[in-house]
Amino acid sequence: MGAQNGKDLLVKVDLTGSGQFETMAGLRATRVSFNAEQVDVTTLESQGGWRELLAGAGVKSANISGSGVFKDAGTDERARQIFFDGETPDFQVIIPDFGTVQGAFQVTAIEYAGSHNGEATYEVSLASAGALQFTAQPV
User: Which Gene3D superfamilies match (predicted)?
Assistant: First the structure.
């Protein structure tokens, strides 16, 4: 996999609950992380004293964060409403030359900032709220 254009990593939100996804407006930077907790099952009998992990156990999670400029578009309004209503709608994350991750996420933080002589900016954080589906990008 060669170098990728950062602007091609897209975060999309289901605007109406009908599967109509739209890119979150104004994002300039995005970050996606996937995590899996370890379940340590090491005992005194573990070979050579090496740690042993229980395969398939532990909690899996994904986190998304992004920052950008406030554009007062429909996706900005939807993100605010998701936060205040405590909803967990579907999001899509398109990762170039990797694939698409889709599933329920909760908006865990929204921050707005601005300076006297600059644009209004925002940061948003999302946490997975259920099983995620992964669709690989065709090679």
Answer: 4.10.410.40
E strands, 21-59, are 21-23, 27-36
Within a domain: residue 76?
Answer: yes
With respect to residue 1, please indicate whether it lies within any of the assigned structural domains: no
d(CA 137, CA 1): 12
Alpha-carbon span 55 to 136, nearest angstrom: 23
**Contacts by 47-55, CB closer than 8 A, 24 or more apart:** none
Q: What is the CATH number of the domain that holds 107?
A: 2.30.110
47-67 confidence digits (pLDDT tens): 999 999 999 889 999 999 999
> Token pair of 112, please?
């707005």
Helix (H, G, I), strand (E, B) or coil at 74: helix
What is the tally of structural domains in the chain? 1
CA 48 to chain centre: 39
pLDDT tens-digit profile of 13-37?
A: 998 888 889 888 888 888 999 999 9
- Output the pTM of the full model: 0.84
